[in-house]
Amino acid sequence: MPLPNFDQTPIEFGQPVPQKKSTEVLDALFHRRSAPAPTLGLPAPTEEEMDLLIRIGFRVPDHGKLGPWRIVRFTTESKVELVERLKVLAESRGDKKAVGALQKLSIPPEALLVISSPVFPYKKPLWEQQLSAAAVCQTLLIAAGALGYGANWITDWYSYDEEAQAILGLTEGENVAGWIFLGTPTEAPLERERPNYEARVSWWEG
Q1: DSSP bridge partners of 114
Q2: Where are the domains of the chain?
Q3: What angle do CA 31, 33, 35 make, to 5 degrees?
Q4: Global pTM value
Q5: Confidence bin at 1 (pLDDT 50/70/90)
Q6: What fold characterizes domain 34-185?
Q7: Nearest one of 206, 106, 95 to 161, comparing CA atoms
């Protein structure tokens, strides 16, 4: 699909950034819903759209301007190879559940791996750097939805397993912030139960 018609002229460092009201953004956020990974199919975002998604993802809050994250992309062939290597790892342990979990990785046509890559020594708190990586994941979900695609943010066992992390190329101090799976939903996602407002919101009373 053609990219949305909006000004994509880069803004130079130090220049004012206009803040714009948008009821469309509010509506999209209010009705945002992740699409289950197994329901994601073709068409997937185009190369131009993927480039736009990643550039938008980079515009998250980032205390200290450290960029404490990185994104790994996959071709169709490299994703198949990754799934196969993870499958061999899971089968070597006799873990059928772990093998089955790889469907979420294999089915969606496009995937982005967002890695929390904190800057050492900690010029800013580690937790804040990790939160910035999480913000990249959330922003990618929102931007994908704005382009008309379905998206899902997961982790699963291959995000935390040390041998799997080595296959993914993580270095010391890095962690998987999330996998962002992208595609076109083959069925509409169903609404889920949401937290009770009164139970989660309170006034500070000193």
Answers
A1: 71, 178
A2: 34-185
A3: 150
A4: 0.93
A5: low
A6: NADH Oxidase (3.40.109)
A7: 95
